[in-house]
Amino acid sequence: MGRRDVRGHDDDLAAEYGDHWAYGPEDVPWTSRRIAEALRIGSTDRIADIGSGTGLFAQ
After folding, report:
1. Is 49 helix (H, G, I), strand (E, B) or coil?
2. Largest pairwise CA distance in the chain
């Protein structure tokens, strides 16, 4: 199998990645709260969202 040039592939997808998911108005806040609770993140804590996708739930 030959190698394909995939440079820029993720950049091309990133612009419309979020359009491929359907969220209700409460889905993102609900999920974000569950993540913060599971990680025990407090109001004075800082987080780094590295390599975890679009950062939707870190916003």
Report:
1. coil
2. 51
Q: Are 55 and 49 in contact (CB under 8 A)?
A: yes
Does the reported pTM lie above 0.85?
Answer: no
Cα distances (Å, whole numbers) of residue 2 to 5, 36: 10, 44
DSSP state of 52: S
Using pLDDT thresholds of 50, 70 and 90, give the confidence band for residue 38. very high
pLDDT surpassing 70 at residue 45: yes
Asked if residues 54 and 14 have their Cβ atoms less than 8 Å apart, the reply is: yes
Cα dihedral sign, 27-29-35-10: positive
